[in-house]
Write a structure and sequence with these properties.
The complex is a heterodimer. By secondary structure, chain A is of the alpha/beta class. Chain A is built from 15 helices and nine strands. In chain A, about 50% of the residues lie in helices and about 15% in strands. In chain A, strands 1, 2, 3, 4, 5, 6, 7, 8 and 9 form a nine-stranded mixed sheet that branches. The N terminus of chain B is likely disordered. The chains are: A alpha/beta, B mainly alpha.
């Protein structure tokens, strides 16, 4: 119901605004020949400004009824969750999606007057960066402290993880047996020459993985591993995890590294997808786990309402949706993981504090550039 | 035969004065008019420059270590790739575009009428869509290679996810610019000289290389300039192929190292490259004439095998650049239609149409003003300002988007600080989006209007001045009818470009104002290529009609 009204408001504005703008242009056209120019331009400017203020009312947070989210998480993944929240509380949620970088630039430029209340993004590195730039405000929440383990939260409470994504090894079971696999570093071994597929180093997920390796293995060893990976590549690196997994399925390569939910989504489409998952580093540091998360924007007009939404996202119900529809792992312990996730088996997660991904990101990118990992 | 615009305008001014003596325009009036015109042009170009300046000014704070890293490990690859891409696009789209324009405008062969317009259709494909569809089809796990392996054919098709694959796809996406302009050249000015050459007994090959090609070269270079600028500013397609270029390096500096300074330094370097390309183009443009010869519609006759070869060539290019990717999009759409299609698509489509129409009208309007002032006062300063006003086309969309957003948000915050408004007023409004997109696509509208205005002969303008009572009447009865083909081309090109645009739309759209391109972003950023097919297909479909009219239009003009 409330959503419908919102759509209606937007639709009506949609028609009047362009008309006003068009009118303004006609007004300007009039400059060429008439003396009534000033009147017409003035009139149009007023028309535009009225329209503007009407349009903004529906979408800002001043009335406390609407929460505006700047999100790099895609609408189709996050919308079901937000719709559920609106259903339960009547609070409207506005979603503005873009890549993280432009969203941060936007928040910085808007400063205290930003219409945004909440930043929702993937990767701890991104969240850390947002906090570094002072775009998020610290909040204290007992709910979050209870629901989200400390290693997945900012110590000052500027952001919190909401779902976990494991980045691990995938293999072609017709060519590789699970006991040949062990760690990420092992994929640099010459035995995998011409058999490894990787996604581009430009993706922040790989940057975070390498950051965690720098922390665990040290700089020198990590660079050696990356050089080994590059030597083992079966083909040019991929621009996304899904195509990389499909390349393993098609037989272009035998092993690769991807986030588990991409695999989950592929399995949803094709239940007999011929690729298996392997939990990396079980004998050592544990599988690399990253977060998607959120924080209250520093310039938010409605920090309390925003915090409530974040707290709700860490609740059993929301966490269950993360697991079942997004194929991500719940950040809260003890939440049912859905049948598919359970079928992949229990695994040991890396204990590293995800903050490190942000701190070491620059170093990780530079290292991959040096090692020729494109 | 070829008159340069400068001389024609010069003569035209003196002509003006003579016929205008009954109105006795005072010196004073003329000076004022000149100043006003120049200030208007100055304002427009300054306005178009602001976002670029904002980004470039951040060069003032050096961040040595990141820049050193980029210079050592990233830039060499970037420069190499940029050179390869520019070279490939120039050679491949230049050759394809010119060859197709030549055969479809000069010969009769089976399918000639169909291909004349069908070969323009790839213009409706955003380069990033063509990129992910092509990779989807041609890559190892795609239907082409899987099908071959199923047939037992194990040929090693090399990977396309590299600079060569990207170069091919960009060439296929951008050849229509060359095709459109070359065709226009062949259809109009070349004809008489070619007929003369034939009568003198030159072979057809010689007619082409000795007569037609040199005459059409300025047009072809004009098309290549558009293609090169698109190539330099492309981010989406090169990302699919994972090729490091200036745009990806800027992205890395900005959003990987969070060093706006390094990003600005790279952007400045890119603009430097562009200036070289533009200078090269202007050298040729000086040679571009504006003759309005009406060619006869007589075409060459070709032998049967030659006709067959022409049909095959056209079929091949049409299939690779349009038909196959189009069918693949339809197939993916059919697979995901039920899951993805909902009532909101009506909004996505209307939003896309709305913003494309508004932007297009706005920039066409500005284009007429700029082109007019440029014609009236063709001095160096005017030329410089005109070039600057058109610079936005080469700046990567993301950079431009941020460059627009910073001053807008600043203005908003000032207004709030001074109590003019209580909340964000400009940012997130349709006007900002309109202005940002206008900055980016100004040149797309300006070029055809400018070209058209150059066709207005001295005598025509003098006659108009003599016969009309008021400037208003002159505009309505003479100038607008003369300009209208150019304006129509400007509107259509602008429309198609804005429909395809992604980064600026993403950054400056107002809340809830999602467009088709935004939808494509949502899906592709998660690697859901199949699900990006529906919005992509709609972008292509909406673009088909204007592209079709565009070709009809250019043929009539010829």
């Amino acid at each position: 119901m409330s959503l419908n009204t919102l759509t209606a408001t937007l639709t009506s504005n949609k028609l009047t605004l362009p008309v006003a703008v068009f009118g303004m242009m006609l007004g300007l056209t009039g400059c060429n020949n008439s003396s009534t120019t000033e009147d017409s331009v003035d009139a149009e400017t007023t028309a535009v400004s009225t329209e503007e203020s009407v349009a903004n009312d529906g979408a800002t947070s001043t009335d406390g009824q609407t929460i505006t989210i700047y999100s790099s998480r895609n609408e189709q993944l996050i919308k079901p969750l937000l719709d559920r929240y609106t259903e339960q509380t009547g609070v409207k949620v506005e979603l503005v999606t873009d890549s993280t970088g432009p969203l941060l630039a936007r928040l910085e430029a808007e400063g205290q007057n930003t219409p945004a209340d909440m930043l929702l993004t993937v990767d701890a590195g991104n969240l850390w960066q947002a906090a570094q730039q002072g775009l998020l405000q610290p909040v204290a929440s007992d709910v979050l402290a209870a629901n989200v383990p400390a290693k997945y939260r900012d110590p000052k409470g500027q952001w919190t993880g909401l779902s976990l994504r494991a980045r691990t090894i995938f293999y072609d079971p017709s060519k590789v047996s699970a006991d040949e696999l062990s760690t990420y570093a092992d994929l640099a071994d010459p035995k995998w020459k011409g058999k490894l597929c990787l996604r581009t180093s430009k993706k922040v997920y790989n940057q975070s993985l390498v950051a965690s390796m720098i922390e665990h293995l040290g700089e020198e060893k990590t660079e050696e591993v990356i050089r080994g990976w590059v030597d083992n590549l079966a083909t040019d690196v991929f621009s996304d995890d899904t195509s990389m997994l499909e390349a393993i399925a098609a037989g272009q390569c035998e092993v690769g590294i991807a986030n588990s939910y991409y695999y989950g989504r592929l399995l949803d489409e094709k239940p007999d997808f011929p690729v298996e998952i392997f939990w990396a580093n079980q004998g050592t540091t544990g599988t690399h786990v990253n977060v998607s998360g959120a924080g209250v924007v520093a310039g938010s007009d409605n920090p309390d309402g925003t915090l409530k939404l974040i707290e709700w996202l860490s609740s059993d119900e929301a966490q269950g949706i993360y697991a079942s529809s997004d194929k991500e792992f719940p950040v809260k312990e003890g939440v049912d993981e859905s049948e598919m996730l359970r079928s992949w088996g229990e695994f040991k997660k890396d204990d590293i504090n995800v903050q490190k991904f942000g701190e070491l990101q620059t170093q990780a990118i530079q290292m991959m550039d040096k090692a020729g990992y494109k | 035969m070829i008159t340069t615009p400068d001389t024609s305008v010069g003569q035209n001014d003196t002509g003006n004065d003579k016929v205008n003596d009954k109105k006795a325009v005072s010196q004073d009036h003329a000076v004022r008019k000149r100043m006003i015109s120049k200030s208007v042009l100055g304002l427009i170009s300054l306005f178009m420059l602001v976002p670029i300046l904002i980004v470039l000014l951040s060069w003032t704070q050096p961040v040595a270590d990141i820049w050193t890293h980029m210079a050592d490990y990233v830039l060499p690859q970037v420069l190499k790739n940029t050179a390869i891409l520019l070279l490939m696009v120039t050679i491949v789209s230049g050759t394809i575009g010119t060859a197709l324009a030549w055969v479809t405008s000069m010969y009769r062969f089976p399918g000639q009428r169909f291909f004349s317009w069908a070969l323009m259709l790839p213009l409706a494909f955003p380069a990033y869509v063509l990129a992910f569809v092509t990779v989807g089809i041609v890559d190892f796990s795609g239907p082409l290679q899987t099908g071959l392996r199923d047939l037992g054919i194990n040929t090693a098709i090399p990977s396309v996810r590299n600079v060569w694959g990207a170069g091919m796809v960009l060439s296929l996406a951008f050849y229509p610019y060359v095709y459109l302009l070359a065709r226009q050249a062949f259809l109009s000015q070349g004809r008489r000289a070619i007929e003369a050459g034939q009568m003198l007994g030159l072979s057809r090959g010689r007619v082409f290389f000795r007569l037609a090609l040199p005459q059409a070269l300025p047009w072809i270079i004009g098309g290549l300039l558009l293609a090169s600028m698109e190539t330099l500013a492309d981010f989406g397609a090169v990302s699919v192929f994972n090729v490091d270029t200036f745009t990806t390096a800027i992205y890395k500096a900005w959003f990987g190292f969070f060093s706006l300074t390094t990003a600005a330094q790279l952007a400045a370097l890119l603009i430097g490259v562009v200036f070289i390309v533009v200078l090269f183009e202007q050298y040729w443009q000086a040679k571009r004439g504006s003759s309005v010869t009406q060619g006869s519609s007589q075409r060459f006759e070709a032998s049967k095998p030659a006709k067959l070869a022409m049909t095959l060539l056209c079929t091949l290019v049409f299939a690779i650049a349009f038909l196959i990717p189009f069918l693949q999009l339809i197939y993916w759409t059919a697979l995901n239609f039920r899951q993805d299609f909902d009532a909101r698509y009506i909004d996505f489509v209307t939003n896309s149409l709305m913003i494309a129409s508004m932007t297009t009208l706005f920039i066409a309007f500005l284009a007429v003003i700029i082109a007019w002032i440029k014609r009236q006062y063709p001095d160096k300063l005017t030329k410089l300002m005109t070039t600057l006003a058109n610079l936005g086309y080469v700046v990567p969309g993301t950079v431009l988007a941020v460059g627009i957003f910073i001053p807008i948000a600043w203005l908003d915050n000032q207004m709030i600080a001074f109590g003019v408004t209580s909340q964000q007023f400009l940012s997130g409004s349709v006007i900002v989006m309109l202005l940002a997109l206008s900055t980016r696509f100004m040149t797309v509208s300006f070029q055809p209007v400018d070209r058209q205005l150059q066709r207005l002969t001295v005598n025509q303008e003098a006659a108009a001045n003599l016969l009309s009572d008021s400037p208003y009447q002159r505009w309505r009865q003479v100038m607008l009818p003369v300009l209208s083909p150019g304006v129509l081309t400007a509107l259509l090109m602008g429309f198609v470009e804005v429909m395809k645009e992604m980064p600026i739309t993403l950054m400056t759209r107002r809340q809830g104002w999602d467009t088709l391109a935004v939808r494509v972003f949502e899906m592709t950023s998660e690697g859901m290529w199949g699900r990006a097919a529906l919005p992509s297909l709609l972008i292509v479909l909406v673009g088909l009609l204007p592209v079709w009219i565009l070709l009809r239009q250019s043929d009539k003009q010829g």
